[in-house]
Amino acid sequence: MGMKNIWAELPHGFTALAPMEGVTDVIFRQVIVQAGRPDLFFTEFTNVSSFASEKGRFNALERLEVAPSDAPIIAQIWGKNPEHFAETAAALEEMGFAGLDLNFGCPDRHVNAAGGGAAMIKTPELAVECLEQARAATNLPVSVKTRLGYSFVEEYRDWLPVILKQKPAALTVHLRTRKEMSKVAAHYELIPEILRMRDEISPETKLVINGDIKNLEHTRELQIQFPGVDGWMIGRGVFENPYCFTEHVPTIAELMALLRRHLELFDAQDMKHCARQAELMRENPEFALKMDGKVRGLAFEPLKHYFKIYVHGFDGAAELRAKMMECKTTDEVREVVGQKVDGDK
Predict the structure, then answer these.
(1) Widest CA span of the chain, in angstroms?
(2) By the 8 A CB rule, do 134 and 85 touch?
């Protein structure tokens, strides 16, 4: 084997940024590096069947793109076809990832309707087969991220042992069910029992907890309360404060500078995206036909999801954000933000 296990190298009580669809892409991860990075990054999840198909490969590879500052980073994948899990796992080893994470917890209804994400909780035998196939195809450490259950909290008593018996390198548990989404408080009261399960079934598996964790200070408080937990994963907390992996309390000027950095990175990624498309169209007539021979840039609208991260909690934030939401280009956003910064001087 000879490949080092990233999970064994992380400090006890490590932090990770949760893989979030449409959020934790290569652009946003570089923003978080500037603000203050966690110990571990994950990619957005990638569909193994898309990766395994000629038609979906371009988009899958873009989702798996990493920046040098991302390391160490783990690729997260989802699906329900064991052979596609194996094919994807084998390819990822060559791409510089520190590990491979299987998403058995995403609550998105489209993902679940396709049999992936949290739907895997309802098909434990298939989940095990996907895990076994992925692990057999790679030397990378293989981990799993999941929820307590699909419909009921009590499902964790049967479901988590199924995964732990496979001895994953790490198990991340979002302390809610798929049905609960994020509408109820995370079930921290279950951590001691989940720790007991881990210690009895697979003590070498690192246990990571996810759900309602706000910032670095919060992880330290939880670590004192639950010293057996190996790591803490922050998801929505990053929307409240992009500096959440540090003790720093940012000023408005720092948040505006971070927003500008995000815009710069978006523009640079857009150029790379267009160049790749043009190259692929030259090499692949089928792809050129699919694209009608036109290079398409990154969609601007999804960028607006991030605005609230930088623009909230100060006088005039709502009005500024409303103006930003009317923008159609990064230059228009820069102009609106520039007016705010100049007005504050």
Answers:
(1) 62
(2) yes
Residue 46 pairs with which residues in a beta bridge?
77
Spatial neighbors of 253 by CB under 8 A, at least 6 apart, are: 341, 344
Cα 237 to the center of its chain, rounded Å: 13
CA–CA separation, 10 vs 278, rounded Å?
40
Beta bridge partners of residue 206, listed in sequence order? 170
> Shortest CA distance to 307 belongs to which of 292, 320, 295, 316?
320
**Measured distance between the N- and C-terminal CA atoms of the chain, rounded to whole angstroms:** 59
Amino acid 69: pLDDT? 96
Residue whose pair of structure tokens reads 């989802």 in the numeric block:
78
What would the 3-class secondary structure string for 157-191 be?
HHHHHHHHCCCCCEEEEECCCCCCCCCCCCCHHHH
| C-alpha to C-alpha distance for 23 and 239, rounded to whole angstroms | 10
Q: Could you state, in chain order, the average pLDDT of each consecutive group of 10 residues for the chain (345 residues)?
A: 81 97 96 98 96 88 94 97 96 92 94 94 97 97 98 97 98 96 94 98 98 98 98 96 96 95 97 89 80 86 96 93 97 91 60
Cis peptide bond upstream of 161, omega within 30: no
Both tokens assigned to 44: 């957005």
Backbone angles phi, psi at 146, to 5 degrees: -150, -175
- Residue 58: predicted pLDDT: 85
Verify whether residue 130 is a known catalytic residue. Answer: no
Tell me which amino acid residue 76 is. Q
DSSP states of 201-253: H-TTSEEEEESS--SHHHHHHHHHH-TT--EEEESTHHHH-TTTTSS----HH
Residue-wise over 246-261: b if at least 16 C-beta within 10 A, else e? Answer: beeebebeebbbbbbb
The span from the CA of 39 to the CA of 105, in Å, is 22
Give the predicted TM-score (pTM) of the model.
0.94
* Residue closest to 140 by CA, chosen among 176, 96, 104: 96
